[in-house]
Amino acid sequence: MNSPRINQLLKFLKEDPNDPFTLYALATEYRNSDTQKALEYYDILLSQHPDYLPTYYHAANLLIELNEQDRAESIFVKGIELAKSQNNSLLLRELQNAYNNFLFED
């Protein structure tokens, strides 16, 4: 965990609590050291910023690691639908490939 970076991100979040990128950056920073904290930030993004597409891939993969397969699948599906509606072919491919791997391994 990079405490100075997290502290800086928390400062940014305090200045602008509605910035999805800062929430996403915090989730990413916590990902390797505190999965529950990372999940809290992903949950905030999913509920308050449902159009922030990068969240879906990482949130679903974290949920797989936490053995929350049903929720991970739901997030993959929502992310795929969102990527299609945003015409984001790159993230659509990434989400679809990750979802297919998830289905194959599950």
Query: Alpha-carbon distance between the termini?
Result: 30 Å
| Quaternary organisation | single chain
Identify low-pLDDT runs: none
CATH fold-level topology: Serine Threonine Protein Phosphatase 5, Tetratricopeptide repeat
Order of helices and strands: HHHHHH
The CATH superfamily appears as Tetratricopeptide repeat domain
Give average pLDDT, whole number: 95
CATH class identity: Mainly Alpha
Report on the biggest sheet: none
Q: Strand-residue fraction?
A: under 5%
What would you call the structural class? mainly alpha
What does the radius of gyration come to?
Answer: 14 Å
Number of E-type strands = 0
The level of helicity is over 70%
Shape estimate? globular
Can you tell me the number of structural domains? 1
CATH architecture: Alpha Horseshoe
Helical stretch tally: 6
Please give a structural write-up:
With 106 residues, the chain is mainly α. The chain has a single domain (3-105), classed as Tetratricopeptide repeat domain (Serine Threonine Protein Phosphatase 5, Tetratricopeptide repeat, Alpha Horseshoe). It has 6 helices and no strands. Helix 2 (20-30) runs antiparallel to helix 3 (35-48) and helix 3 (35-48) packs antiparallel against helix 4. The longest helix has 17 residues, at 69-85. This is Tetratricopeptide repeat protein. It comes from Fulvivirga sediminis.
Short key terms for the protein model shown above:
single chain; 106 residues; mainly alpha; Serine Threonine Protein Phosphatase 5, Tetratricopeptide repeat; 6 helices; 0% strand; globular; Tetratricopeptide repeat protein; TPR-like_helical_dom_sf
